[in-house]
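Box 3.1 A note on notation
Throughout this textbook, protein chains are presented in two layers. The first layer is the amino acid sequence; the second is a token string describing backbone geometry. Keep the layers aligned when reading.
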Amino acid sequence: MPVSRSNSRLKTARNGPRAARPGAAFYDLDGTLVDLNLVHAALFVQSNLGEWSARIGYLLAFLARAPRLYLAERDDRRVLNAVLFESLQGVSADRLLHLGREYCERVLIRHLYPQGVELLRANRDAGLEPVIVSGSPDFIVAPLAEYLGATAFAANRLAMLGGRATGRLAEPIMAGEEKARWCERFAEERKLDLAASWGYADSYYDLPFLAAIGHPVAVNPDRKLSRTAASRHWPVVHFDPSRFEEAKRDESGAADAGHDFERAPVRRGNGGAAHGAS
């Protein structure tokens, strides 16, 4: 049986029996591997676009959407994902890629749960391919997947026209049932066994995603997911934010150096297939 370490300890598949087909470990991002959410990423991107006059315009457009964001956060993650990036209309793809990498290097890496990184590495050592499945945009997820050594990811994509964002998300939108369908397609294409795979997420909105995986784990769960995990006898783990500072001291500024960005190539998810490294 896989090793079970609850609460502050980790749930990994170490020493698990080998299946006829290999499994994978599928990770949600916001709230699961990092102590941030998509709203924070959107604010960073929009506050770093162009000159100050342009930045103010983007931020005012973002604030005008605040009521819709509140309702979307409460009721429909698909709508939340779509509304967050409407104000990026007209921004070039190159600029978004640059800001995504900057956000990863300056912010995301510093907010990775150390226990989450340990979990990913332990599962990889146990033979589980690491895959990130996130509602965050691909220009943010790609550099983090590269940093973590994840071999594939699924993320939302902005629809482009003439090399510039249209303000709309391309289908499929990575939320709810679509996350589960992406995992099923990915497993079929890669000849992976979902029953032998592990899934990690923090939100009740990720319930379809977790239910599609053979070994679901609730990480830092919200109240609804916590109740569901208890009723279904799913393991629950809690990562300790106080370990951020400890990890920063141990790494001695390695994140600033950015040397880990030259690690394994990343396969980019497009909602249905994994592509070759770019």
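The domain at 24-268 is CATH 3.40.50.1000 (Rossmann fold). Confidence is low (pLDDT under 50) at residues 1-9, 69-75, 252-268, 270-278.
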